[in-house]
Amino acid sequence: MNSTATNKPNSNGNRLIVRRIWPYLKRHKVKLLVGLAFLLINNYVAVRIPRHVGQAFEFLANAFRTQTEDLSVFYGELMWVLILALLSAVMLFSRRLLMITASRDMEYDFRNDVFAKLQNLSPSYFDRHPTGDLMSRATNDLDAIRDIMGPGIMYMADSLTVFPFALIAMTQYSLALTGLALIPIGLFAVIVRLVMGRIFFYSKARQDLLGEISADTQEFLSGVRVVKAYGQQENRLAQFKTINQRFVDANLSLARLRALLHPSIQMVILLGYALLLTFGGRLVFKDVIGLGELIAFLGIYRLLIWPVVGFGFVLSLWQRGAAAMARVEDIISARSDVTAPEAAADAGSPVRLTGPIEIRNLTFAYPGGDGPVLHDLSLTIPAGRSLGIIGPTGAGKSTLVSLIPHFYPVARDQIRIGGRDINDIPLNQLRHSIGYVPQETFLFSDSIRGNVAFSDPAHAERDARVEAATRISRLAADVEGFPQGLDTRLGERGINLSGGQKQRASIARAVFRDPEILILDDALSAVDTETEEQVLEQLSQFMDNRTTILISHRVSAVRLCDDIVVIHEGRVAEQGTHEDLLERNGLYTRIHQAQQLAREIEEENGSTDFTGN
Questions:
Q1: What is the pTM of this model?
Q2: Are residues 51 and 126 both part of a single domain?
Q3: What is the pLDDT of residues 530-544, one digit of tens each?
Q4: What is the secondary structure of 444-510 as a DSSP string?
Q5: What 3-state DSSP class applies to 389?
């Protein structure tokens, strides 16, 4: 449970909701205003119906006393009731149709805006927030906010308009009875004051815990094979039960409050009827008001009950929505820690970047990290040349290449491309020029063709370029054995491909983009050395005249690069060609010798590939 939650959210939470949904209300104001007009007509008509019902009963009472047989007045009142009831039904249908449709339109816009905001946030934000929790905010919490935009606004407007209509109509019969009718309303206000703050508190706790459940479930499903392989099903179940029990407890607390609220409302309603029948009956016996007038008054009081009940329902929705908005606000108000200028709206397709990559005295620490990962690192990669990066695990290799596409904030003048500081390059132009294959391969639940053509699925020569890209990545031969070839659909994260096939599909995706800068971050770690050599041989022509950065834990993968750097503890430990580095007899030589020895043992024993790194 969020320890910062309080049971007094009303002012800040309400202002936050109004501030966030106001632009969407203005955007769909026509439907809302027309719906409100229908709502006003419906409520006015609804208040008029009891008057005609009362007059009909008054006429029947008088007719019974005088033995009148002419019932034309009675039928006239009955006709008015039917006409007004039909008009009320039409207005009710119209206002619901317009206002609920507007709420769905607002929900559509709001979801799109939240999703767009998520796409614009930097990776560091996702490093701090579990995927399952973000999914819960983007689904369950938005549903609660949608309820405010639709039923919440409609029922609040309903309550606020029926109340004055009914109150004015009741005063025309008896000021004394009207005053009695207001007593239960005051009691209800006290009940609402006592209960609503706690409803927010438990609603917020419920939404937070639902996010935890979503995050835990998503993590389990992603790692289900690891859980089963280590026989940790019982431990994971126990962990899930703990979170789920807290979720159930919050739900039960919320249910108890709501269970208290509903009978309290019912008690208020019955108390009101008891008071009105007791004192209204006396007024009828004293001939202060007629029987028909008392019946009309009670009919209008019944309409007055709805604003009371509806307002309580709206407040419950509002508190739940306020709790949800507080969680979604974390996404909406988040600011990307990567700053870059916006591309011009009429700029068209981004201009590709050319020129050398210059890294100057780069020191970098992850936001919220314990300390720098890279220390005073300097490199220059000439345009069209290749750089191999090798080094021990955790040395900072992947961190270095993740800064070139500007995934994380970089101080000014520390990375320049083509003479331009990356902080001055629009992100779409920068990333449009880069083909990036990350260390952790990710494939979408789409066809192989769709995954390879991900960067430009509508390209005029898509199919030809996909086939060329799969040939270069040495995936084409594997695809030929699939039942539907390139149109074979992949499971979640490409589950029906092997690790090596996933990596080659990712390489094909980068090749398809035809980038000026190609970054391969240990992109062949899951393939054997023979396949690696074949892929690199095919890539060699593609890499020609492209600025290429190739990270690998194998010397065999980087040995043919124009330049090689050895990264150790976030610093450039050695730099040179393959032959130069071997002559220095340093860290690179030791890695090379260990891998050569491991390969000889592998060939002698026929064992699996072992790098010795």
A1: 0.73
A2: yes
A3: 888 888 888 888 888
A4: -SSBHHHHHTTT-TT-TTHHHHHHHHHHHTT-HHHHHTSTTGGGPBP-GGGTTS-HHHHHHHHHHHH
A5: strand
